[in-house]
What we know:
Blueprint: E1 2-7, H1 22-29, E2 41-45, E3 51-54, H2 60-66, E4 81-85, H3 91-94, E5 107-111, H4 113-120, H5 125-129, E6 135-139, E7 155-161, E8 182-188, E9 194-198, H6 206-214, E10 217-221, H7 229-233, H8 254-259, E11 266-270, H9 284-291, E12 294-296, E13 302-303
Parallel strand pairs: 3-4, 4-5, 5-6, 9-10, 10-11, 11-12
Antiparallel strand pairs: 1-2, 1-13, 2-3, 7-8, 8-9
The chain binds D-malate, manganese (II) ion (MN) and zinc ion.
Amino acid sequence: MKVRILGSAAGGGFPQWNCNCPNCRGVRDGSLRATPRTQSSIAISADGIDWLLVNASPDILAQLAANPVLQPARALRDTGLVGVLLMDGQVDHTTGLYMLREHRGPLRIWCTDPVHADLTQGNPIFGVLSHFCGVDRRVLPFDGTPFSVDGLEALAFSAIPLSSKPAPYSPHRENPQPGDNIGLLVSDTRDGRTLFYAPGLGAIDAPTWQAMQRADAVLVDGTFWHDDEMPRLGVSSKTGRSIGHLPQAGDDGMISWLDRLPATTRKLLIHINNTNPILDEASAERAELARHGIEVTRDGMEFSP
Ligand code: MLT
Ligand code: MN
Ligand code: ZN
């Protein structure tokens, strides 16, 4: 299995257009040892030819251009993408669907029922797309039932509900429902290697922990270092946990969880907010991650679990 990181930043990207926090200013003026990042998205493949896009970021066109493997050019109109799987209905994970509207034939999209409701009501992207390519919606089960993705038959997919939040526009933003956010397990049936992916993870409950322990590589929420990172910087009053993101630091933080996984498990962070000190490659926080064997993903990186 191949996993390609198309975008490793959280919503807003890095730098964020209207932000002059130390990170955004520093990467913009070159004074910081840091790399710009586009918004959260990955692509998964069994053979390196057919790819499943997992989340459609607002930066999708730049991401496709930066990853030529996704345009195999076998016909006048072509794509390496066999479909799109949505982990949630967040703006940074879904609005790129608009940019795929020229697709020849309905776009095949896997999503849960709550995400489908949000994308037909609160933010009716699917309704808009019906005036262009249309949507071939596939129900994404989130009770652990295995499902397959046409074109990626060598991979077995399953999903679990996560403790997190639906998108800010969702009619039930403050009343999260199972299936608003999922964690994805992808196993390669040829070698058994397994990925756990969860870019929006608010808390690690027992089923989530079990799924993480089953995986050879965990690619998880790297949004914030401190729970109160945005209030501290004065950019927002929201804490990480209040918007469904478990911070890395602290007794019950992501680092302490990742530490409990076997040393052989590959541990990677994605969906990194522009305020997070780990973006500064010279920071003490980045060095701390390295000491714990935790990698910070970057755009264009490819790995096999
Ligand atoms: C999130 O991950 O919490 C959202 O993408 C936030 C947003 O939509 O800006
Ligand atoms: Mn996000
Ligand atoms: Zn910033």
